Amino acid sequence: MEEGAGMPRRRSPPLHPQIQARDEGAGVDRRRNPRLHPQIQASEEGGGMAHRSSPRLHPQIHASEDGAGLTRTSPVESASLPDDDDMLREILLRLPPQPSSLPRASAVCKRWRGLVTDPKFHRQFRAHHGKPPLLGIFEFSNGWNVFKPILDPPDCIPSQRFHLGRYSQRCHYILLDSRHGLVLVKNSRQDEVVVCNPITGHHRCLAVPSELRMDNLGGAVLCAAGDHGHVHVGCHPNPFKVVLVSTATSANQPLAAATSANQPLACVYSSETRIWSNLMSAEAPRQFIDTGVPPTLIGSALYWLSENDLMLKFDLDKHILAAISVPPVTDGTYYRNRRIIQAEDGAIGYAILSYPSFQMWQRNVNGQGVATWLHPKTIDMHTFLGLPSQTGTVLGWLLGYDEDTDEIFVYVRPNVYGVQLKLMQSRKLHETSCVNPYYPFKSFYTPEQIMLLRLNRDVDVRLLVSYLCPLQFSPTVCDILFK
């Protein structure tokens, strides 16, 4: 040790980089931990240091072919979407079926817009998802038949986008049914029913056969297309059917006498033939059909509630009308708090709400054709589902049922809740002071109408977007959508 130099300090190799002389002896090199720092090596010319960058953190730099400079390869380019349109189409088909999905995808670029505006893609999109999302419900509110959305933004569609035009006035037009993207209303002034498509604005008026009573008329509308893989939603201009049930009019005495004191009657309208079928009757006492509750479609049959101890069944394949006994309920539950539902294995179910108690019956048919109602499954909606408890004036009302998702809509002041019966899960939808039956409305609501008009430069772009695609787009997205 040199004199006066002091005691040397020994350093721990793991904590400090090792220092060694370079081959040329011109200085020292710091050998760094390759896990913590980019590696530093001498350049080929020996004129300095060259940093070896991590390929994960920095774009790669290569010399150009002519040697005149460097070209930078972005990692975004290496991770770009596939060039094959078929592969991209398969990816886009898997977007969620909510209303905002396709319009937002169409705003990405012209290539995406071309794919999602193709009518063939729309058919594939609907077929891939099968059942459409529930956009909202139609109900009677403040003198009008109105649409009420239930989705959250950006999928929430304003009420005014889906309207029934002049058929919205409750004083003359009464809701009967909503199914497959269509709505059926009764015109009490003209003795007719009207099939409405709320998205396109199309409608068709059908004169009700004179043998049926208008004051006790129930009805159902459904798509009649039977193509393989057809998805029953937004079925305009596909063929449709209308099924009406009622009792014989008192003015038609021969028919009333022939049907044993106003037995229930049914008839079917086909948009393909544009005529009503012959009347069909059921062997049952006089039925007062609950026209304030829409029918339930289970399999190939429609079911209506009545105001007594029977329900009506209409077989769509065999065109047979029949009466079925309901479960032996003796608790005096208000008949509007009952619904026909689909039970396990496609069987007929019967739901009764006496809040907070909720019962689900199932109809079982044995090998000899004898039908019985199985003992009900009872659920306490407060304890099991977390809905509010019944205190004071709190009442529970059964507002509606979605046969596709097996979801009931329950009003517990002041909110409406959706309850998934298979999953036994609940969600709060909205607050309301209006307690009337719900008519679920489902559709994919694709941007097809907007995209077909994108070449029409004479139309105000923002007006079209606000009218046909009200999904809270910014003005920038609106401009991109139509470029």
Automatic annotation (TrEMBL):
Pfam family, one: F-box
PANTHER family per UniProt: F-BOX DOMAIN-CONTAINING PROTEIN, OS07G0120400 PROTEIN
Region described as Disordered: 1-83
Signal peptide: none
Compositionally biased residues, Basic and acidic residues: 21-31
Protein name per Swiss-Prot or TrEMBL: F-box domain-containing protein
Transmembrane region(s): none
Domain F-box: 81-125
